[in-house]
Amino acid sequence: MDPTHDAAALIAGRLFGARICGDPTEVRGPTAIAEADGYLIQTALLARHLATGDSMVGYKIGLTSPAARAGYGAREPAWGFLLSSAVVRSSAKTSRRTGPVLRAQKIEAELAFVLGEDLPDCDISADEIVDATRRLFLAVELVESRWRGITDLGGLIADDVSNAGVVLGCEVEPVEARATDVCAEVRSAGCVSRGTISDVMGGPAHAVAWLASALARQGHRLHAGDLVMSGTFCTPLAVEPAEDVTVSFGRLGMMRLEGQAP
Question: What is the CATH number that goes with domain 55-258?
């Protein structure tokens, strides 16, 4: 499909409603959404959230593994926005799942970067990303699709790359973003998903460097204070609202998300 700005706003309105109420929406007409159109719809979706008084605090990166990109026929990762209302901040290693996390969703183990300076609108290295990072957190992202019956790349992008919420765990030294020996394990109800820090494009800082370049191509840039979710260490693990979730980051620490009572 090739939406005009008005059509993009209409689609964004349906995605906005689906995010709030939990009832998935459908694309009307041709089901294919082009990648560029997906970002147009995503921009309109962000505008809907901002109009309610919410604020954008940063970005998330998705499709950081070759297998994930292959599933969508993507040439490169994708990015979406993070809302203040969807970020739970905690300095403790145990965090209660709160905010919009009330439905069956998937859990991803990630690192969250908080930048300490504006980044240039040109190519930047992973080492420069680490040097520009003011704070680094263990984190989980909760993901869900607001679509019914659509799995194409443009649809994923339009739907804010399936972001549903972020929980920040304990803080670690920014230099850990250079590590290659960190393993992650997400466990819930007897199911387990495992991966390593290098599964994120060779290292999470490489993913953030990619994001900086991708944003520059669209006339944007990363700024001091931006929160950036790196992309997942392992395959997203499906969980139900009542299930407790344990996320281990090996020597870096652990997070526990308590399920919501029915």
Answer: 3.90.850.10
